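Anyone else keep sequences and structure tokens together like this?

Example one:
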Amino acid sequence: MPKPILDVQDLTVHFYTYAGVVKAIEGVSFKIFEGETFALVGETGCGKTVTSRALTRLIESPGRIVRGRVLYYRTESSSPIDLLKIPEEELREIRGKEIAYIFQDPTASLDPLYTNGYQVSEAMYYHRTVSKIKEGIMRAVDLFKKVLVPNPEKNVETFPHELSGGMRQRVVISAAISNNPKIVIADEPTTALDVTVQAQILELLRKLKDEYNSTVILITHNMGVVAEMADRVAVMYAGKIVELGDIFSVFEKPYHPYTRALLRAVPDPLKKIERLESIPGTVPNLINPPPGCRFHPRCPYATDKCKLKEPPVVEIENGHYVACWLYEKLEGKEKTSMQQPVEVQ
């Protein structure tokens, strides 16, 4: 049985705007195990980034974490700590050192006024991994070599605007791994990059994960990236997790209509397809989300019950969960609640 490192329970985040309360994520629960790559996948606006930022309370006004628990197992023997309850000072010691982020836009992540080496060094200096900035810059050279930044001795002295998008993303990855984090949260790290550079960055993340024995939370809308990188995947729609399981069971036997639709929208080079399938309609307004199942306005299998009641989460197979009324009466299967931790046996 793998050991959990994060246990997210009933995480709910709302944004209080002039137009109304945006229910960004509602009752999100999952467990992440040590050493695995866990993917959150879904359309733009489904709540993936909000979920990842809420794990370490990086929700800015007008957002607010309404309820939930994020239990972090800091060591094997110690009791877990709730990242939503500990003081901000203690959380700062964890954020960036033990739980690091790779954000999707490297340009926004780097300060244009400081050199690339200084910014990587600063991450180490703040968390006391090094005693001096100059020492950190020397270590940044080694990190640049690991992430395949060319001519690292020179590029620690360059500024972000002097590098390409792919090189800037490598600098951000260097800062993220500089303190040997236990968890790396990669929020769409290849979005702004071309296909060739995307493949290089993904291969780099895989190698670094193996080298540092880190746990990776991968945020993406690309099902191909999920298939290549992830061990388990949670499919999100309109602020809720609708399906969760290991990568093979979800891709080979997708149960939720939304998961099926996502996979049908991906071109298959081995099949002759004249027209790709699309998902009709649009993502619902989360100020006034539809009652019942939030996917029902776009679902070809929707019934009256789907429009009135939110479906429970059913364990279809060992560790494979789905929230859909189509599977309500599976014999020999017990219903489970989203409030309970989801784990693979």
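And example two:
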Amino acid sequence: MCDKKYWDIRGRSFPGYRSGDEFQARVLETIRRHGVDLSDAHVLDLGCGAGSYAVPFAQAARLVTALDISPVMLDRLRSQAAALCITNIRYAECDWAEYKVNEKFDIVFCSRSPAIRDPADLRKACSALSGWGILLHFSGEARASDTHTLGSALLELHGVARKTKTDYSVLQDWLRDANIPFTVYPLQGERRAYFTPEEMTTNAITVVEAAGAAPDAHIIREYLEQFRDEASGKYLSITRYDMELVIWRGQG
């Protein structure tokens, strides 16, 4: 079961859909190039978060069911959908383990979410699938510049041990054992994002609070100095990603 409190805290600063995001565009283009037709599809977005993919899916598909355990995440998605005049998103505030599958979906999609962490989660996703299954996950651990991303270093300064990463290879092993053919598309690259000092501080505070620690203003202030871009006065975050997009057809 996912940690609702953790994701409610992270939801205060978690990124949603960003127009022009190169990585999101690459993911969507790869899905289309594989032959997945969104035009008349009902998409289930598992662990949709603040809507990184629920929004572009809704812009292309007939209907999107956006499922997330966090009401904070879903509220942020609702706000962005309203601002973009998107009306074809159905919201489900629920943990995937507790969700009752009463219908089939043309597409089941999950991006870097603990909604699908083990073969049991994936088996349930396949039971809800009549068309395409799509899983976006890290191929190893998220690779990031030591000085240009919020993460484990900040948590270690607050005395928080690094969490064990999900081993996503077991999900591909399950698909093989179930005789479900799938295609893997490697996606590597670099993402750069600029934040105001206030935005960066908020991001840092939510990372620490979500890990169950009390934010130390002095530690955070000193830690964030390495992100400062002198030319713009903003803070630059650089994330290098090494990911895999897994696509398969449903068996029923």
